[in-house]
Amino acid sequence: MDLEQRINAFVKLGAFLNQFQENEVVKNETLEANDLFFDGFKHQLKLAQEYNGWFTKQNITFTISNWSNALTDKNVRQWLSKYNFNTAKPQTVAIIMAGNIPLVGFHDFLSVLISGHNVLVKQSSNDKHLLPFLAKYLEVVEPDFKGKIKFTEEKLENFDAVIATGSDNTARYFEYYFKNKPSIIRKNRNSVAILTGNETKKELEALSDDIFRYYGLGCRNVSKFFIPKDYNFDAFFNAVYKWHPIINESKYANNYDYNKAVYLMSEFDMLENGFLMIKEDGSYASPIATLFYERYTDISELQEKLATDSDKIQCIVANGFSNNEIAFGETQNPQLWDYADNVDTVDFLLKI
Fold first, then answer.
1. Sorted alphabetically, which Pfam families does this protein's record hold (predicted)?
2. What is the rounded CA–CA span in Å between residue 269 and residue 13?
3. Lower Cβ count inside 10 Å, N or C end of the chain?
4. pLDDT tens digits, residue range 170-198?
């Protein structure tokens, strides 16, 4: 199977996903194999929601929409244009996926197959309904994918390289267990925002999407923000209010109530507005329904601090802070070439 076949298959998958939007699901009668898969995928979406309370319809369809937008012929070719695929020798690459947000391991899955390798997937039990179904669609629209995609719930065996995502604790296990294999091991990371106090309401409203999308469970979610010493929180609280219905979601509300009780019993200072607590804290990883903050007095010192802690940070949301910053509201809209942990997965796969 050549690169053109692989590209065309994933572009067809993107068109298939484009039918399942947040506001409406509209069947496109012109799509290849759609009669076989359309109703089945609607059922898988329903199963994913029922199985994992964090996977709401809104969160799943947001993910689906992002992938349908990414998997266009133009985007895929732009992404792959800088690589040389002629030297890649097909290998079997194992992927150990997280399950914190829907289809969180799809980029690794895509990268392995688009590079010409075989993939061996070990999914999280929290996210096991969507990807196997999409893999079947790929095999039907491009039969040469058959035999190149395998899912397992058993111990990983017979693979040449591995991409594994987990917590800091599991990463240490991964590093030991896969020490003799080419690997990408991903640990805990969080995203931060840098505020100056001069942000517009539109920017702060966009920031609220970075905070609350997926309930804050993703590594690209902002879990902490840095503020000037004399920052006034009024504008921030006003702007994020558009997300207040989130407190009606039972799993989020339970975490909010629990963490609020812990903070109150521990007599921690915090501010809260009925659906979000903000607390001054030096950590990057904040609990659900909580946003940490830290004050700064010197931008250059803050830049130095974040550079030192770069292995803990996925995204920096800011306006004019650094060369690798992300605009407010864009953390959950990565491009195909925006790699997790800034590790070029395709480059790694072409060199194994």
1. LuxC (PF05893)
2. 49
3. N
4. 999 999 999 999 999 999 999 999 999 99
Do 68 and 164 lie in one domain? The reply is: yes
115/78 same-domain check: yes
What is the token pair recorded at 326? 């992300």
Q: Please measure the distance between the N-terminal and C-terminal CA atoms of the chain and give it in whole angstroms.
A: 19
Statement: the pTM of the whole predicted model exceeds 0.70: yes
Clarify whether residues 24 and 153 are in a common domain: yes
Whether residue 299 sits in one domain with residue 174: no
Q: Which residues pair with 217 in a beta bridge?
A: none
Any residues with CB less than 8 A from the CB of 45 and at least 6 apart, and which?
20, 57, 60, 61, 64, 130
Instruction: Name every residue whose Cβ is closer than 8 Å to that of residue 117 and which is 6 or more positions away in sequence.
Output: 88, 90, 91, 92, 93, 148, 349
Q: Is 1's pLDDT higher than 80? A: yes
The residues, any chain, with a CB within 8 Å of residue 195's CB and separated by 6 or more, are 225, 226, 227, 228, 231, 236
